[in-house]
Amino acid sequence: MTTQTTNALAPSAAPKMGQPAPSFSMLSTKNPETLSEKVSLDDYKGKWLMLFFWPFDFTFVCPTEIIAFSDRYDEFLDLDCEIVGASVDSVYTHRAWTNTSRDSGGIGPIRYPMGGDVTKDVSRAYGVLDEESGAAHRGLFIIDPEGILRYQVVTDMNVGRSVDETLRVLQALQAGGLCPANWKPGQKTL
Hints:
It is a single chain. This protein is α/β, with parallel strands linked by helices. It has helices at residues 62-71, 73-78, 91-98, 121-125, 163-175, and strands spanning 25-27, 38-40, 48-53, 81-87, 114-116, 129-130, 135-136, 138-143, 149-155. Helix content is 22%, strand content 21%. The radius of gyration is 17 Å and the shape is globular. The relative contact order is 0.20.
């Protein structure tokens, strides 16, 4: 007798810390006119990358994060870190959302590319896909210039992430030492 099992509702496996980050390539809003440019992990070799996921466009918590990261994009660039955001929505939905003013439920222009993970392959590779709902959990990953995963956090879909904490962690990773709890730039490492 043979038995058949399915992993349709099994949670996705999370990538391993200190290991190469899962490769990805997806259409993005890099060129909002054509929506034909892809973003891939290879595009960011030699730089730090913060890759983050949100569940769906045109929702409530998501715009607060997307806008907050965009508003502080220069601080990430100053740390030689690029940002890529992604959800399971299409790049056409992303463009509609960025073309809608903040007063009308949109997010307005965003300074970093937003990837359309419509196949859900990238969300699945990073272990954030909720197979039952088809949405990505709020996952955030910091990848170093060699493509190694150095930080990951995944929160409930109802809880937004902190730009301040993300910047602090990025600076701690770049400090190159042992950083105690609540470490801030300028403080000694252990």
